[in-house]
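Open question from group meeting: does this chain pack into something compact, or does most of it stay loose? Before anyone orders reagents, we agreed to write out a predicted structure and look at it together. Recording both the input and the output here so the notebook holds the full record.
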Amino acid sequence: MTLEKLEKELEKIHEQLLKQEPVANAIASSVHPQYRASAKNLYRYLQLRNTDIRAIQDGLAELGISSLGSGAGYVYENISSALKLVKVLNNKTWEKNKDIESIGFAGSKKLLVQHANMLFKTTCKVHDTEIMVTMPDEAATDKKLIRKLRKAGMGIARINLSHGNEKLWKKILKKSHSVAQEIQQPIKIYMDLPGPKIRVANIYIKKEDDPSFSATPFIPIAKKSPLLLVKNNSPYLSKGKKKQKSPSDIPLIEVSIPEIIDNLKVGQQVFFDDGAIEAKVLSLDNNTASLVIKNAYKKKLRTEKGINLPNTKLNLPSLTKEDLSLLPFITAHADLMGYSFVSNAEDVSVLYKELKNLGDTDTGIVFKIENKEAFENLPAILFRAMKRPNIGVMIARGDLAVEIGFERISEVQNEILWLCEAAQIPVVWATQVLDHMAKKGMATRAEISDATISAQAECVMLNKGPYIVEATKTLKNVLLRMEAHSQKSKNTLRALKVAKKGLTNIHKEFTKK
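Structure tokens returned:
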């Protein structure tokens, strides 16, 4: 690309940003003052990533000018600086518009650290990755375990409210607070809202010489095996004369949320156990979905295993009755809460309304990106989330990988990192980090590589296991080493579909007049 062509292309981008400045101002006015500059920068980033500018990137690199890929956190300043340098090389003078509210490299870094400090209740002056550890049930009785975890590097104790009960959670809280007081080091408390988690509630099979179905904890699974997804009021399970004639030898899989069967369509995928078992919907009849197994990487399907429906539009509330009943407990005892299965901006408003009714203004909110819809709506979710301070985003890679496809998870997790960097929103990197080490005592080489990448986030989550203390120590060492080498990622800039959709949604909301 010639210098003249490069100058013209940069001018086009700059002019587009100036043209859309009224929209940027409207967005900034709609968010909490803490996020005014961040919201404007995110909007500019969406504009930048709405087109493929790899050729411009290459042209700048040839000239030794800082690439646009390194400036997600300070879009206008980065483009202005690049344009000015290119004009200088073309023997021209140019100055940026000083009336445009913007932030530079240092300001972007400062804002991200401020936002992370507010969310995680810390006072770091530079990027210092937090470690969050899921508390095992033993933490309710073993104070030594919590002390070891804190000394190993854990700063945040995660209590998963999908498991256990209030009595157990209070014991973990008491032990955690006691340890923090004894060693004079804070332990922040994070709690997950369970959300509408779809699981295998029960499995029923026919036994020999018995016409009725009996419950079983698991069934063998193989390719081409038939299954029936049923509701708890299925006629196949009904007693008495109205009992429908049952299918011979086909296991019944009762789902935890019956409504999902109403949302299914023929041909859609159904995944069990984090994607280890893949099925396809063959037919729908009598509130029942007939499935056939397409792939089975595990030989058994057990109760309580998760179900993912990546192609299905689910009409489920973002906050369940259980979530609403747990909110008072969370706001009373947690520093941060995880909002499970948030899918769109309206879901954000629903939670904020409930928190307002409870009088809660300072509990940190981490929006868990767990499905395809949430990822595609992430810009809108971020803009709506910015109406309240102390927010973050979790890349929940387990469910997300199943929902979008394992081959896309690396790409998508990077796009989430870029969008959050543009918004100066702290990120929690979650699911299966050093998982093998936590469970078996030894990390795989791939796990260590994955842990090094996690240093790009502001917090990394570990799941429980018998060797969780060792895993925490290892992660802490990896993060300390990587933080000295890296600071966010630098990437080429092809157009992003998520940016295009994000702009479409934003313009609908802020250009109605």
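Observations to bring back to the group:
The first helix runs from residue 3 to 19.
The mean pLDDT is 91.
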